[in-house]
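INFO  loader      accepted 1 record
INFO  loader      residues=265
INFO  predictor   begin
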Amino acid sequence: MNIYLHELRAYRKSTITWTCSLIAVIVLFLSLFPSVSKDFAEFSSILEGYPEGVRKALGIQIETFGTLLGFYMYIFMYITLCGAIQAMVLGTSILSKEMREKTADFLLTKPVTRTKIVTSKLLAAVTSLVITCVIYIVAAYLMALQVKTVDFDVSTFLLISLTLLFIQLMFLAIGFIISVVFSKIKAVLSVSLGTVFAFFVIGMIVAVDGEGVKRYFSPFKYFSGTYMLEHASYEASYVIAAIAIIVISIAASYFIYTKKDVHAV
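INFO  predictor   done
INFO  writer      dumping tokens
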């Protein structure tokens, strides 16, 4: 528990910063919705001038862009990008920082098992992400109530918003196993940004070329906003894939970390 609380305190400033950043982004974007809704005919004609491939890559659906949920679905793509970076940085640094700061030997001499160390650190990271997600959803919902022009489906809004946490957990797990396999990562931010943006670009390419099996190559495409608007639910196959990525990555991280030699230098 001491390790868990220590890690929570260590992530406190980062969590506050990312949470405030996500709130600022959603407030800024949603504040534009009344203007978009009012002059949608003009916006629609402008959007129709863009090539279809560009619209798909940017996640723009002209049919729903003038509605609050459709507009939110578009801007939410960038919210998930920011959230993924937060999670990836957490996952990548969660264990590798002990190597960078040369505290690994000191930590492992304490009367705790490696499994408990990993579990405490992982729970602290998950807690930070949950706090960020909950506060973001509350802020986004309150902002949506302020800018709405007509009533919207709250359950669908929350369904879309919750995908932030799922995507964050996937990138946390990916970053976690990277931190275990490559323990001496010095440029955590560079690795995190590179990985997240690579998956983001892959997601944009997938959106242009088509969907189907290709969507499995980018976590950003596991939760289709269009599908959620139409069915008010997630696609079961992609939820299973997301869970598999998280479980396999975490399980592999535990196995590797408990077996490998850990050095402070």
